[in-house]
Design goal:
Blueprint lengths: L1 H26 L14 H31 L5
Helix pairs in contact: 1-2
């Protein structure tokens, strides 16, 4: 019973970290300095980190919900 929970926890951690890295990498191409006064300030860096976390959370949540729904399809019949 608990083995499945441990596997789900590992999948969730891996997916969250993977999408966090992908989001950070993708946002590096974004011209962030056009929207902030001082692009090299600690506030701008903190905003970049928070935007990265927010987008990664949304994307990983969608992916994990889709994965969970697709695994439940076997109980349809």
């Amino acid at each position: 019973m608990f083995e499945g929970l441990g596997q789900q926890a590992l999948i969730h951690l891996f997916v969250n970290v993977m999408f966090l890295a992908i989001t950070w990498w993708a946002l590096q191409a974004f011209k962030f300095d056009l929207f902030v006064k001082e692009p090299n300030s600690p506030k701008a860096k903190a905003l970049m980190i928070l935007v990265t976390i927010a987008i990664a959370q949304l994307v990983s949540s969608f992916f994990l919900d889709y994965y969970n729904a697709s695994t439940m399809l076997r109980y349809l019949w």
